[in-house]
From TrEMBL:
Keywords: Leucine-rich repeat, Repeat. This is LRC43 protein. InterPro entries: Leu-rich_rpt, Leu-rich_rpt_typical-subtyp, LRR_dom_sf. The lineage of its organism: Eukaryota, Metazoa, Chordata, Craniata, Vertebrata. Residues 34-57 are annotated as: Disordered. The keyword Repeat applies. One of its GO terms (cellular component) is cytoplasm. It holds the Pfam family LRR_1. It comes from Pelecanoides urinatrix. Signal peptide: none annotated.
Amino acid sequence: SVSAAFWKHLRRLGLQDFPCGLGSWNKSRFDARTSPCGGQPGLGADPAGQEEAMPLDEESPEVLLELLSDRHSPWAPPPDCSPQDQHLREMAVLAPELVRGSCVFQVLRSLRIVGKGMEEVDEGLLQLQQLEELILSANQISRITSANLPRTLKVLELCCNAVADLQDLCAQPPPELQHLGLGYNMLCGPSQDKYLTADFWPNLVSLDLSFNNLTDLLALVSQLSSLQKLRVLVLQGNPLALIHTYRGFLVDSLPKLSILDYIHIGPDERHRFHSLAKQPELIRSEARVVVSIGEIKGVPDPSACQQLEVGSKAPVITYSYCVTYEF
């Protein structure tokens, strides 16, 4: 589950271990904060504003931070450490009380768990009450229960999973979501088109549906047209993208769209495809695919058969091959 992967990741960051967290290496700095007569809160400043001498058995915050950032240090960030991870580690040095236990839930704004084999988005995610960005790409998620998603989410990325049905995701979707990434999943049209409307995603600005199995361009566009804030759309890799008038029809049907399949839509292109949306009869559910075979190894070449002498009674051997493509 996401919760299990999250806690495993936190333990890997070592937020409670040297040089992070609370311990003998920084106890005097934080004892003053919690002491009833500790004076002014701060990082080792006395009432007169002068720095206190650092105890011999302790380390300064600067030294501890350097141990976290120096690539030659035993506590250097791992290769896959994200900026958010490093920020948490630094916070665990400067203000360790903010990342202890459940307090870390109030700090996280972004959570990225990629390629960890997760299958379930569980309710434990609701503890992250300030979460705005959730990236769960390259896992094994087939079903997302929207009731388990924080209501504060603005970005939800589920690329490269096994999502085939959006019904559960659209039961109680995060109301402020601005980006929804569903590329490289198993969505089939037109059964899923009905979930791609403003009724479920009123604030959606960016939508990635690339490399699924969406086939009905007219039905999909009729639903997407309700997304008044949509500016970025990715549909490449779907069968409907093979339709000859695919791009022109989308450009004219969605006049507020700025980027289609990672390509900016300019005024010239809009002018060129003007009124195409009023001619749906031009959209034919067929496509022509030209395949060129560069080289085949391991089979005899029919054109290289040895020429037989005139009058020869030797048997004639011929070769023929059939190449089949399945769509």
